[in-house]
Structures are given as structure tokens and as C-alpha cells.
């Protein structure tokens, strides 16, 4: 083989090698998967309403029934209303326990809904004057003693027409019924305005005579009778009738101890109301 043929052969072989390198498949590179960035979940807050409970009103002494202090610490407070100016006067009458009194609190609930509380002096004869209304005003008297005992001694409503008719908070019409003591059970009630009448009851501090005086009222002409009952400290129960004339009186001889008095009125339509209940000490 001559030199020219050798060169030609080498050129052909070189071309074949180059062609094989261009057409051959190279191994595939692995496919890289992009990394996923986690997205934190989102929460939509649910709005909830928090109910704030209303504060519970704790009962006070003025929410309790009238209670008479024991005889050894008995005290009394008189309440009356001026028939012209409607001013209400509360007077401390004293009593066997007057030196043991820590404080006397008077609460007034007017017919307008206004409520006030004032302190009454502890000396016998001390008084306070409170502006009242032409309507029915409620007066409550609570006494606190130095030994820690407390009593609601008066729960009274005073109307427009007359002063001094001591009655409890008005309630619905109810018939009275006799209790074991010979007095009448159930709350004191105020008749409707068309039947309203007033009776004053006092006890003489020297002779111990209990006097009931009829003061009249819108229902005067509709009255059937007025009974004044007294449960005396001697254990005796006495009843006297008061005439239906303005100024008419009835008297019961009280005792040297504590006497409890009630006034019950009866009307021609059959309604009856216990309009007054009051406890008197030895000196009224």
C-alpha cells in the first residue's frame, strides 16, 4: 500500500469515529424536582360574644320582713306625713334598748321611684324630715345594735290624704284571715284609691291607753265597719270598733309590756283590708 492510500484510509476512519460520537445518545441527566415551600394554613377566627352575667343583688335588711326586737332592747320610731306639704318626719321614740343602738337607718321610696337613705339620731326625740310626694311613699326603718343584731322595725306607706296612717307596702286586694293569736295573718294592704281610708293609732306613755282615731278618706262612705285589734303583753286579745266618722276614736287599755295593734276595715262591697299593724313598747 502506498503512502497516499494509507492517508486516505486514516481520514475515513477518523470521519467514522467523529460521526459515531455525534449520533450516539448520552445518558440522561436526572430531572430535578423543585423543592416546595410549605404554606402555613390560615384560620379565620370565629367571633364569639362573651356574656357578662349581671351582678346578683344581695338582699339587704330592707328586703326582710318587719321584726320586733326582743323586749330588753326594744326601740320605736314614729313616722308621719304632713297632709299639706307632704313632708315625711321620722322621730326616734327611744325604748329600753336605746343606749345599745349603734345606728338607725331610714329608707324612703317615693311614688316617683326615687330611693334615699338617711341616718336618724340615737337620742330620744331626734328626728329627720324628708321631702315626700302627693302619692304613696314607702318608709322603712332599720335599727342596728352594738351586739351585732339588726332589725327592720318599720315598713310603712303614707298616702296623700292624711298623716300617720302606718301601713306596709301596698299589695293586691286580699281577704284577711284570723291567726292563732286572735289577730289577722297576711301582709298589711292598702285599699285602692277609691277605697282609701286612714286611721291613727297611738299609745299613751303614762296610762298605756291605746287610741285609734279615724281620719277619713275617699272610701269613707263605702265603709261597713272598722275593727281595732290588740294583742296585749298580758296575753289578752281585745277588739274595739271605730265609727266611720272623721275624728271618731276607740280606746283599748294597753299593758306595761309590748302590745301589738292591727286595724282592719270592711267595705260594703265585701272587700276587707288590714291597713295597719304596729307594735308599741311599754311607753308607746
Textual characterization of the structure:
- There is one protein chain.
- With 284 residues, the protein is mainly beta.
- The chain has one helix at residues 3-23; strands at residues 76-81, 88-94, 101-109, 115-120, 127-130, 137-145, 150-158, 177-178, 184-185, 198-203, 209-216, 223-231, 237-242, 249-253, 259-267, 272-280.
- It is rod-shaped and about 175 Å long.
- The N and C termini lie far apart (165 Å).
Task: Tag the structure with descriptive keywords.
single chain, 284 residues, mainly beta, 4-stranded antiparallel beta sheet, 7% helix, 37% strand, rod-shaped
CATH topology of the largest domain: Immunoglobulin-like
Counted up, domains total 2
Largest sheet descriptor = 4 strands, antiparallel
How far apart are the termini?
Answer: 165 Å
Can you tell me the overall shape? rod-shaped
So what's the CATH class of the largest domain?
Mainly Beta
Q: Mean pLDDT across all residues, rounded?
A: 80
Give the spatial strand order of the biggest sheet.
4-3-6-7
Q: Helical region count?
A: 1
Described by its quaternary structure, the protein is: single chain
Strand content: 35-45%
Note the run of SSEs as H and E: HEEEEEEEEEEEEEEEE
CATH architecture of the largest domain: Sandwich
Unreliable spans = 161-176
**Helical percentage:** under 10%
Q: Write down how many β-strands occur, each being a DSSP E stretch of 2 or more residues.
A: 16
Amino acid at each position: 500500500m502506498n503512502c497516499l492510500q494509507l492517508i486516505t484510509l486514516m481520514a475515513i476512519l477518523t470521519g467514522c469515529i467523529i460521526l459515531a460520537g455525534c449520533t450516539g445518545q448520552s445518558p440522561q441527566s436526572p430531572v430535578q424536582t423543585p423543592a416546595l415551600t410549605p404554606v402555613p394554613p390560615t384560620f379565620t377566627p370565629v367571633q364569639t360574644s362573651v356574656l357578662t352575667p349581671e351582678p346578683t343583688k344581695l338582699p339587704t335588711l330592707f328586703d326582710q320582713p318587719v321584726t320586733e326586737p326582743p323586749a330588753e332592747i326594744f326601740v320605736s320610731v314614729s313616722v308621719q306625713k304632713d297632709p299639706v306639704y307632704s313632708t315625711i318626719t321620722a322621730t326616734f321614740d327611744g325604748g329600753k334598748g336605746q343606749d345599745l343602738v349603734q345606728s338607725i337607718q331610714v329608707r324612703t321610696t317615693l311614688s316617683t321611684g326615687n330611693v334615699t337613705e338617711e341616718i336618724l339620731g340615737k337620742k330620744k326625740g331626734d328626728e329627720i324630715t324628708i321631702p315626700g310626694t302627693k302619692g304613696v311613699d314607702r318608709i322603712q326603718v332599720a335599727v342596728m345594735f352594738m351586739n351585732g343584731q339588726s332589725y327592720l322595725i318599720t315598713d310603712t306607706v303614707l298616702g296623700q290624704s292624711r298623716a300617720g296612717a302606718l301601713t306596709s307596702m301596698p299589695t293586691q286586694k286580699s281577704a284577711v284571715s284570723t291567726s292563732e293569736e286572735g289577730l289577722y295573718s297576711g301582709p298589711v294592704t292598702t285599699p285602692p284609691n277609691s277605697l282609701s281610708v286612714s286611721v291613727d293609732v297611738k299609745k299613751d306613755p303614762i296610762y298605756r291607753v291605746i287610741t285609734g282615731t279615724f281620719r277619713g278618706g275617699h272610701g269613707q262612705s263605702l265603709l261597713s265597719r272598722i275593727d281595732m285589734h290588740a294583742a296585749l303583753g298580758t296575753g289578752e286579745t281585745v277588739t274595739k270598733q271605730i265609727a266611720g266618722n272623721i275624728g271618731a276614736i276607740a280606746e283599748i287599755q294597753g299593758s306595761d309590756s309590748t302590745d301589738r295593734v292591727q286595724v282592719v276595715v270592711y267595705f260594703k262591697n265585701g272587700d276587707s283590708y288590714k291597713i295597719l299593724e304596729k307594735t308599741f313598747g311599754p311607753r308607746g
